Amino acid sequence: MRHQLNTEIGTLLDKVRASTPLIHHITNYVTVNDCANMTLAIGASPVMADSIHEVRDMVSIASALVINTGTLNEATVASMLAAAKQANAKGIPLVLDPVGAGATPYRTETVRQLLQQARFSVIRGNLSEIRVLAGLDEQTRGVDATAVFDTNSQQQEMQAFIENTARKLNTTLAVTGAIDIVSDGRRICFIKNGRPEMARVTGTGCMCSSLVGAFLPMAESPFIAAVAAVACMGTAGEIAYGNLLPQEGNASYRNRIIDAVYNLTAAQIAEQARLK
Prior knowledge:
Catalyzes the phosphorylation of the hydroxyl group of 4-methyl-5-beta-hydroxyethylthiazole (THZ). The structure is a single chain. By secondary structure, the chain is α/β, with parallel strands linked by helices. It has a single domain (2-272), classed as Ribokinase (UDP-N-acetylmuramoyl-L-alanine:D-glutamate ligase). 53% of the residues lie in helices and 12% in strands. The chain has eleven helices and eight strands. Strands 2-1-3-4-5-6-7-8 form an eight-stranded mixed sheet, sandwiched between helices. Helix 2 links the parallel strand 1 (22-26) and strand 2 (45-47). The longest helix is centred in the C-terminal third of the chain and has 22 residues, at 222-243. The termini are close together.
């Protein structure tokens, strides 16, 4: 079953590169360039338009929309809400990256408005952010994932929580951390790729959300798209770490992650993606 999923991801990667879907981003200014480059690296085409005067038109010609709440202001929030509604009206798949949900009332309220006014195909976040979306009101430390689970009982508890939350929010959840978990409320996949050093690179989560957006238009389901994106990001992190030179640090690592995605092949995913 998991071997078949590995093969599906590789096939999906080839489809993205053959089709070059246009992925519209309304994202944060800290990582916007990295998100654009990651979108190009996987084989899609990015556009980073956030003006209220053009977001409806832009999303109408896009293959997917990625909304990231990392740096908010009144203008971008209005654009996010308008673009999300237009994406739903046009049947365009929609990704939410609720960066820092729970960190401030304004940020949390913005995410709540987005969830109330639009339906998202995939929500990708760390565990603290997803707990806030589930209504647990957990206070986060900015964009850090603070919770871990090691025992079988903890894993079962986490599985039940994520499946229930996915059903509650009527979406596919991609929860990234030491072990990544994707669930649409019916199916669940644990992904054990990646490196802890990825946490020292700003924006790896944002880049992963861009990959979700790139895979969504080509995938048979948001679940497959999310698994593909998370597995590709983690695999690229492993490859990039193996290519680092002794004197290189996190800036080089960021570039090598993007390069690893650019050079990623279906065969590498089939062999290296560790799915359970």
